Amino acid sequence: MSSPPASPTPVRLADYRPSPWRIDRVALQFRLAPRGTTVTARLEISSAPGGEDLRLDGEGLRLLSLRLDGRALDLRPDDRGLTIPAADLPQGAFTLESVVEIDPADNTALEGLYMSKGMYCTQCEAEGFRKITFYPDRPDVMAPFDVTIESDLPVLLSNGNPAGQGRWTDPWPKPAYLFALVAGDLIAHSARFTTASGRGVDLNIWVRQCDEDHCAYAMDSLIRSMRWDEQVYGREYDLDVFNIVAVDDFNMGAMENKGLNIFNSRYVLASPETATDDDYARIEAIIAHEYFHNWTGNRITCRDWFQLCLKEGLTVYRDQQFSGDMRSHAVKRIEDVLMLRARQFREDAGPLAHPVRPESYVEINNFYTATVYEKGAEVIGMLRRLVGDDGYAKALDLYFARHDGEAATIEDWLAVFEEATGRDLAQFKRWYSEAGTPRVRVTEQYEAGHLTLHLEQINPPTPGQPRKSPKVIPIAVGLLSPEGREVLPTTVLELTGAQQAFSFDGLEARPVVSILRGFSAPVILERAVGAAERAFLLEHDTDPFNRWEAGRALAKDLLARMVTDGTDPGPDWMTAMEAVTFDDGLEPAFRALVLRLPSEDDMAQTLHAAGHVPDPAAIHTARRRMQAVLANGLAARLPDLLAALDDPGPYTPDAAAAGRRALRMAALSLLSRVDGGAAARATFTTADNMTVEVGALACLLEIGAGDEELTRFATRWGEDRLVMDKWFTLQILHAAPETVAERTEALTGHADFDMRNPNRFRAIFGALAANHAGFHHADGASYRLLADWLIRLDALNPQTAARMSTAFDSWSRMDVDRQDMIRGELTRIRATPGLSRDLGEMTERMLG
Ligand code: PHE
Ligand code: ZN
């Protein structure tokens, strides 16, 4: 028996050293075969003056030959790469040619070159290129690439511009993680784009034949993204073609490879019959996100992987701006904050908390997190508030002018803001280096026309960071008169100390304070506000985000009381909810968001933060009770609302129509609790689009009905893999807590369950983890089931297994029995022989 492997040594930001080697040009030649693909790589290398060995990364490659300036070298790689001793290297420039063999058909990790439904594709970010050939696989090594692909397949794609059948040349120097190759029997949905300066670009979305008629919305989104980046950021596209390929087996959402974006097919393919409004919105956002990377990520890339937020935070910020411009800024902001709290605040509050710019990692794939992405975007939003729109625009222009073609750092990023605006950002930089969600405690004093706000910030300890210093926190406030008139328009207070007071004079009466407008900083506000004041803000706040937030906070207060002492919400809440629900002056999407009660996970997080040990079963019961109270209170007027929202005519995916459907489905869900599902059943039967079809089905499943409809749904959609993912998810997500584990296990025996397909695995186990009361059921069956499947998946696809293991990251807020059970499962996973570095690091961090 071999001894267990020692814990791998972490990579540290502090150890960064520039590459001693430059790659001046790369020529790759692929001879494709499912087993035994050969890759010939000719690297033109400039040697370092230091006389160092040349180290190339390479994993799982069979080295067939290695030549330096034509002379054969007899060297054996180790299991992570190849070292060419300095003694073998000439002075100055030289050419290194390697030939390796790889087996894409056996690649279940979906990293490097792999096969998905008969097509070849690649995924290289972050460190997948080393599974294709020997190379200095680090983002600060940038080179122009020429690629030749030999295969019988008709469509052969790579980065850059076409240079003949199967030949591509990419003039823009790029790091290896942006390399891509696709070969398959594909068909293009095409369009043409003319850039602002008049250059023509061919746009193609490549899919399998059967999906050709599902590409129009993605293409429309791409064209709007390209135009928007020209108009808002002055960024033009820089190649003759832009290709997008949809693949079914993909670990993440999509990938921004230069000129050849590769997408998880669920973020490309859509038709009214098969995709929901949320799917459409996500397609628009992700198409934009990947396109925007062409400048923020590709033209300017990251020096090392610690700088990941440099491209991801900024690109998320840009795609959020874009979606807001395309749809509704208020609704988009509310949705983004819901997601931030659900994923990032949760991460920040548990054992996986890490700074926006981490300082060490074992496996970089584990750091594509809500903190790097979403908190990284929030940090940019704060920066913009602090320097103003003009300052932001100037800083970005300087950033593009100065760093184009470079691999940059967060220091470079902050420096352009300092230079463009003259502002010192030393304190601001703590947002990048310190983990954890700050709490901001607010108290107010009013006397004779004079209001004082006392603000205090508390920066809680996180793993490895016991003590923190105050941050600069932009707090947007507004004041309303008791009649609901705005007496102070939105003003940004800069909280820089641990405690600080801000005064407002000349007020006619005690104002109502609207604080943290637009969610101006990713913090938790602690403020004792009565129900009456929250209801007032829900009715009158001029800031739409805070208007929603007031309703949300009110619902949370009431739900917390229901959980802890069983008190039902009083009539004030009902009055306020009724007013919003039936106010035709408000956007339907906004009304739907107000009707959406806080999730069970959100409540558990909130109760925990308030010093309670949350009981998942009690939260579940209370939330259902609250829904029933709301349903009964609104019941009489719901049928009229539903009738008014039943749009005749064909489906359109625009935000206004989607908002009406969202409100309609929210109303239907409430009505289902009083009519036994009659209206939902009728809606399901007549639905002519997927939003309404799954919306109605979810209403039925929520009230314990819908089995017959589930069967009809499967019969209708059995051949459509993306729709069937929804079928798997829905029945787990809406199942009663005590039945969830059993149901999930049964579905893993379904003929269409394929653990090699990440979408399907996530459809099932993501739903299990998202059914809060079911996942945390006291019998521990769900914990066991998830652990079993993570262990199984890890052997095939470590990246997705590690990502899904975050379902366990909330263990420390649970009661002792559940803590013991979860820790037991994590310990069992950790002890698995041959466990991947990915899942190993995650269990290690979660166990603390
Ligand atoms: N860089 C991709 C994005 O954010 C995400 C990704 C990371 C995809 C790693 C695949 C692998 O757009
Ligand atoms: Zn990205």
Task: Give the termini distance in whole angstroms.
Answer: 28 Å
Number of strands: 30
Question: What's the average pLDDT?
Answer: 97
Q: What is the radius of gyration?
A: 28 Å
Give a concise summary.
The chain is of the alpha+beta class. Helices cover 41% and strands 20% of the residues. It is globular.
Please tell me about this protein's structure.
This protein is an alpha+beta fold. Helices cover 41% and strands 20% of the residues. The strands form 8 sheets. The protein has an 8-stranded mixed β-sheet with strand order 6-5-8-3-2-11-14-13, with no helix packed on it. Strands 16-17-18-20-19 form a 5-stranded mixed β-sheet, covered by helices on one side. Helix 3 (308-326) packs across helix 5. The radius of gyration is 28 Å and the shape is globular. It starts with 10 loop residues before the first strand and ends with a helix. Bound molecules: phenylalanine (PHE) and zinc ion. Zinc ion is lined by residues 289, 293, 312, 315.
Keyword list:
848 residues; alpha+beta; eight-stranded mixed beta sheet; binds phenylalanine; metalloprotease
Topology:
Elements: E1 11-12, E2 22-31, E3 37-46, E4 54-57, E5 62-68, E6 71-72, E7 81-84, E8 93-102, E9 112-116, E10 119-123, E11 143-150, E12 155-158, E13 161-162, E14 167-174, E15 181-184, E16 187-194, E17 200-207, H1 216-233, E18 241-247, E19 254-255, E20 260-264, H2 277-292, E21 301-302, H3 308-326, H4 329-348, E22 360-361, H5 370-403, E23 407-408, H6 410-421, H7 430-433, E24 439-447, E25 450-458, E26 473-480, E27 486-495, E28 499-504, E29 512-515, E30 524-526, H8 531-540, H9 544-565, H10 571-581, H11 588-595, H12 600-609, H13 616-634, H14 638-645, H15 655-675, H16 678-686, H17 690-702, H18 707-717, H19 721-733, H20 740-748, H21 758-770, H22 772-775, H23 781-794, H24 798-804, H25 816-830, H26 837-847
The structure holds phenylalanine (PHE) and zinc ion.
Zinc ion (ZN) binds next to α3.
